[in-house]
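Example 3.2
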Amino acid sequence: MPILNKEQKIIALFIIGALLLGSILRIVFLQPVIRDWLTAYDLLYHQKNITVTLDGAVQNPGTYTMLSGNTVKDLIRKAGGLSKNAAVTAFNQILEDNTHYTIPFATAKTNRRVNINTAGIKELESIPYIGEVKAQRIMDYRNNHGAFSSVNELQQITGIGAVTIERIRQYVVTGDNHE
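Structure, written as tokens:
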């Protein structure tokens, strides 16, 4: 005499199948939740210092030491905040060690280029990558050395190097020659 009749075997197979399917679905759907819990636990109890670089539309671009788990928003706050011409966007991304972040500038409403030989502080500050401090340095250099003969001459100013020159070249001129 068989232990289970045909109907009982079908019910037993159905129960085993349902348990297997439930286990598989549980693994598939809970895995992201478990990963998030583990990440949150790791961030809370195993924070470490990370090094990140920030440039673009911020008051004080540079390299900063932050805690793992901090966001770009925290980094911007540490860098003195956004510059006046920063593009407004979400900054909730978690920082990653040894990563370079660039805060975008708001898109200019005109294609007019700034003449670095005649512009005042506010107009110089409207140039992407040029904040209040660099604008003042440009003014001081111009007052002490005369008009710029080329955009490349901006490299003589502390804090403005070849990379910055290439980034701002499309926004500046030295006169009517559109250089």
